[in-house]
Amino acid sequence: MSDEASRYLLKCEGLAAPRHAPVREHFELAFREFGLPLGMRSDNGPPFASTAVGGLSVLSVWWIRLGIVPLRTAPASPQENGVHERMHRTLKAEATRPAEHDLAAQQRTFDRFRHEFNDERPHEALGMKPPARVYTPSPRRMPERLREPEYGEEFAVRRLTAAGTFSFRHVKFNLSFVLGGAMIGLREVAEGRHEVIYGPVRLGYLDETSGKPRFEKA
């Protein structure tokens, strides 16, 4: 996890698999130490994204409830996250080739790399300063309670069931379990056509122009 503006490497942790629980734990540690970002750019793989509506995952729904906008790169477009990808190339070359014999030893290597990258290595884009001399933590602190997104007066608000379903015009729609219990907003954008959003993310459209309402994923 890195700060794009300063190149500062906030986290470099080795995990056995990209599962939600351990990844969220490290994000929470980082947010409590460094503050909350306004946005989080990632690729489209788990646990950052999924094939659910809006590409949302359990992790990115949590980000939204923290006031963080998920920013995903287009498929097969790592250049859209170029600063982070360049750091990845350096990390792989210097800290994983060859890999250590176990995860504990690998983590010690990651920790050494992070210290050198942040505190010792000059970066041309930073006027030949190391990231630690440029980085400043976010003033947005980690809240003790999560909040659902707020919507304007033009939106009708619906709370999803624990399974991620809701009803519209007496028709039941199943969005996704990742949105279980969430508050979504519906706004009419044309006659008989409603945009459906969760916070900053468009989920799709409800269309009732042909009679029975149907949901179209974004």
Task: Explain how this protein is built.
With 218 residues, this protein is an alpha+beta fold. The protein has 2 domains: 20-133, 2-Layer Sandwich (Nucleotidyltransferase, domain 5), CATH 3.30.420; 156-217, no CATH class. It is 25% helix and 21% strand. It has a 5-stranded antiparallel beta sheet, with no helix packed on it. A two-stranded parallel ribbon has the order 1-2. A two-stranded antiparallel ribbon has the order 4-5.
Q: How are the SSEs ordered, and which strands pair?
A:
Blueprint: H1 20-34, E1 39-42, H2 58-65, E2 69-72, H3 82-95, H4 103-120, E3 156-159, E4 165-168, E5 171-174, E6 183-190, E7 193-198, E8 201-207, E9 214-217
Parallel strand pairs: 1-2
Antiparallel strand pairs: 3-6, 4-5, 6-7, 7-8, 8-9
Quick overview of this protein structure:
The chain is α+β, with helices and mostly antiparallel strands. It has helices at residues 20-34, 58-65, 82-95, 103-120, and strands spanning 39-42, 69-72, 156-159, 165-168, 171-174, 183-190, 193-198, 201-207, 214-217.
Residue-averaged pLDDT, rounded?
94
Number of helices: 4
User: How are the strands of the biggest sheet laid out side by side?
Assistant: 3-6-7-8-9
CATH class of the largest domain: Alpha Beta
Keyphrases for this structure?
218 residues; Nucleotidyltransferase, domain 5; two-stranded parallel sheet; 9 strands; 25% helix
